[in-house]
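PT: before anyone asks, these are the final sequences, not the draft ones from last week. 406 residues across everything. Please model them as a single complex and drop the result in this thread when it's through.
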Amino acid sequence: MSMRLEIDLTDVDMFVRGEHLAAFEHLRAHEPIYRNESAEGGRFWALTRYDDVLWAYGNHAVFGSEHGAILGGSFRSEADTAGGKMLVATDVPRHRLLKQQIHPAMSAAVTARVADQVRELVNAAVDRAIADGGCDFATELATELPAGALMVVMGIGRQDAHHLIGLTRRMIGFRDETFVDIGEDARLRLAWLQAEIFEFFADLVDERRSKPGADLVSILLGAEINGRRLSEEEIFYNCMNVAVGGNETSSYTACTGMLALVEHPEQYDRLLSAPELTKDAIEEMLRWSSTNAYVQRVAKADVRRGDVLIRAGDSVTLWNVSANRDEAQFPDADVFDIGRTPNRHLSYGAGIHRCIGAPIAAAELSLLFDRIVADRVRFEPAGEPQRLRSNFILGMTRLPLKVSAA
Ligand code: HEM
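LR: through. Structure below.
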């Protein structure tokens, strides 16, 4: 078998076993622009070096987003696509106009309100974990981060927020039997989940039409692009973008970050003795976790990079998880160093589609780790963590920890 067939980046179990980092190290050294061929995921290019990934992010005129950020097209079928409707799957010039409309739902004022809500939920969850002497960090603590954000951004209650998190979690975990019966047809399952999510937002749209507020749905209902209101479908897609974009990423980053601190106790002690490092520590957790492992683009024209010719219509994947371990950019990239500076990781992407929720994610993570550090809470492993079966979102579905306060 030739080398090109040996690494298959659609092999989800390689990611579950944690063997992907070695595969990427090999690719960066030997075949940095890799032609992935696989039965399941089709053919695509994989960019694995930091400079190449950054180059593609910056070149949005050539690398379009309308085929969606996930390999394999939209969540449903080729005909029913989010392209041109959902922010993350929209190209310029419409992308810029749509982003302007969504921005007020992620403003500094909203971020401050998210912080207050998350603080309340996180404090209660940490208190519970200390009282119980332990918790499953993945299911009992980390999910409070997106819950707090959703409550404010969408203007919904805690129960509804957790219901929505359950739905998006199953959508992102559609290959993981923790969340779904993987015996069923994957496309049907996804179509059903998306329909459930859209139904949730349809109810919300009805409610906000009669009683508008300062939330995302109300903002989208009032939005106009080139003198036209958004269609209901566009509103649903963009609510889903915010929900899927924010629910899994921030909570899974918290899990991977927490596990890194548990596995590197000397770094945790360093953090306890220098709490002012928390901000840098969170950036390092973002780099280390690379929760959104890759995004997809499709080339709109032939383009050459080094000796590789990427042709119009080719699918190209930008591997944040590999770029974030590139030694050319990060000395001792495999060392978890909470004081790392500079730390220009690509975990939020780059260029025009760079994560619009980054300030909210940063607020969520800061509140959690500020609280833990302030109370000098100690965490120890209390069982095997279980990784999510996905090559797109890297996270943990189980993270049992013993918890004690100083
Ligand atoms: C640690 C947490 C997070 C990570 C790692 C993350 C990662 C990313 C990445 C890599 C992109 C770029 C996608 C692309 O280029 O195709 C992105 C975009 C986006 N994210 Fe996040 N995200 C996080 C948190 C959030 C939160 C909390 C929200 C919402 C409250 C959110 C909403 C979005 C949206 C709407 C986009 C599309 C932006 C655009 O296309 O202009 N994300 N995110």
